[in-house]
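Second attempt. The first submission of Germin-like protein had a stray character pasted in from the spreadsheet, which I only caught after the job came back as garbage. Lesson logged: always re-copy from the clean sequence file. Corrected sequence (208 aa) follows.
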Amino acid sequence: MKMISTVFLCVLLFSSSHALDFCVGDVKGPETSVGYLCKPASKVTVDDFVFTGLGVAGNTSNIIKAAVSPAFSAQFPGLNGLGISIARLDIAAGGVIPFHTHPSASEVLLVTQGQILAGFVSSANTVYLKTLKKGDVMIFPKGLLHFQLNAAGYPSIAFVSFSDPSPGLQILDFALFANDLPSELVEATTFLDDATVKKLKSVLGGTG
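This time the job returned cleanly.
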């Protein structure tokens, strides 16, 4: 009889409780390896689940002639904990999103305007390359180096979705030439000559 009572109590407790439907991120607090802490349910509003920033073109007046407008958990707190995010790519004529990786997510790219030459390199150094037109979709597996460049001669637009609300980003060129990593180490690890390394550092703002 005691065991039956215990089982009944457990069933009653579980039936009267429920799992969290969502965990809207408290973006005023720190982001951890598993995302943001949840906002109190009483402070969650419909605006936490709506993002309006992707309808506006990004500023492409920069060295790469391209812009990424993110809707990650930091900008879109309703994504927190859901394993997804999205961003807009604007690539002007002659523009490029240089070789980069997303350590935490795979990526799906959908071209909505123009043409984009996109590709990635596998860990076996196999190159997968394609010129994408409006309506075409390409995937980039998690952690692999990939790039996108304008192949239309006029502004191209794409939307990219990720399998993580905070996919992370590391751009290869910036990692090599936009910091204080000593030039001699860059030269030793890339087989580039000193003049080339110094030139790239001056262009990208690096020192050393």
